[in-house]
Design a protein that fits this description.
Elements lengths: L2 E7 L6 H11 L2 E6 L17 H6 L2 E2 L12 H17 L3 E6 L2 H9 L9 H14 L1 H11 L1 H5 L6 H14 L3 H5 L9 E9 L2 H17 L2 H9 L16 H8 L5 H25 L3 E5 L5 H13 L1
Helix pairs in contact: 1-14, 3-4, 5-6, 5-8, 6-8, 10-13, 11-12, 12-13
């Protein structure tokens, strides 16, 4: 007998959490967060984390499990989610995985390829070259060598450009070629994949309104508390999260607050665009329209097939 799991993905600010909670009130599911920022404690406002009351009523696995000093990887996510999905099935419920970290979704649905460890020498040399020519020029090189991976990476996404070229340097193979060898982590699980979206103008307007709402709710004070810790720095994965990275730069004196806000909104838009690019390439994805009155009804029609 096959086991089922529901995946709900979408660009940032589209309303995934509200929809997941609505579905959790209708069906016997348990929620699993698929978000690389929600794993961190003390990062509540800028991540759009559900309130403590919501988390009490509708518990989310993989939320508030780490301190911001710690790192979390796609590999660790797959290990954690494999255990969680099996546990949820043993309780007679269906996992509902909700979030927007597409790297984690890809690792879970397609598997994790065997990638080499980081090479400090190569990274230092590439950093120096990028300082001279700029990351867009390095991205153009990647586009020639591995267009499949380059399409998924922004022209200024230094970390991911660096990693893709590093893999080629160390293995002699493109990252896309290695990723093609990966196998699903949960081959016995059948996934119903739901993609929540709205038209771009609505989404961008919503992104800006949400960012300003977060600022009014104390986002800067939240980042300031993290900034004042003597063990955190701008290069940590937690502090590279969209919004946190820009406000950290402001607190470090690298830009004004208005500039940081504008850059944060722009970076969030770029994130949403990358998320949608990945979603459009996802197989067997059922699109839901967040612009209608009740996307939950659209989702429920599909989910009812699982529960009979």
């Amino acid at each position: 007998m096959r086991e089922f799991a529901i995946v709900l993905m979408g660009p940032t600010a589209v309303g995934k959490t509200d929809l997941a909670i609505e579905l959790a009130s209708r069906f016997p599911v348990e929620l699993i967060s698929v978000d690389s920022a929600l794993v961190y404690r003390q990062m509540d406002i800028g991540t759009g984390k559900p309130s403590a009351e919501i988390l009490r009523q509708f518990p989310h696995h993989l939320v508030n499990i780490l301190d911001p000093i710690e790192s979390y990887s796609a590999g660790q996510f797959v290990r954690d989610v494999t255990v969680l999905i099996n546990d949820i099935h043993s309780r007679g419920k269906v996992p509902l995985l909700v979030g927007g970290t597409m790297l984690y979704f890809r690792a879970m649905l397609r598997g994790i390829a065997d990638m080499p460890e980081a090479d400090a020498r190569f990274r230092a040399e590439l950093d120096q070259r990028a300082a001279n020519v700029g990351w867009p020029a390095i991205h153009a090189e990647l586009q020639q060598l591995d267009p499949i991976v380059a399409q998924r990476i922004g022209v200024n996404d230094a970390q991911r450009i660096q990693r893709a070229l590093e893999v080629m340097e160390l293995t002699g193979r493109t990252m896309s070629d290695i990723q093609a060898d990966a196998r699903p982590a949960l081959p016995s699980v059948e996934f119903l994949i739901l993609g929540l979206n709205m038209n771009r103008e609505q989404l961008y307007s919503r992104i800006e309104r949400r960012f300003m709402h977060m600022m009014n709710a104390g986002f800067l004070a939240e980042v300031k508390r993290l900034f004042q810790r003597n063990d955190l720095n701008a290069n940590l994965p937690s502090m590279r999260a969209v919004g946190y990275r820009q406000l950290w730069a402001h607190l470090a004196g690298q830009c004004t607050l208005d500039e940081a806000i504008a850059q944060g909104i722009l970076a969030t838009r770029h994130l949403a665009r990358r998320q949608l690019i990945w979603m459009r390439a996802a197989p067997d994805l059922h699109w839901l329209d967040a612009g209608v009155h009740s996307p939950a009804d659209q989702a429920a029609t599909l989910i009812k097939k699982i529960f009979g």
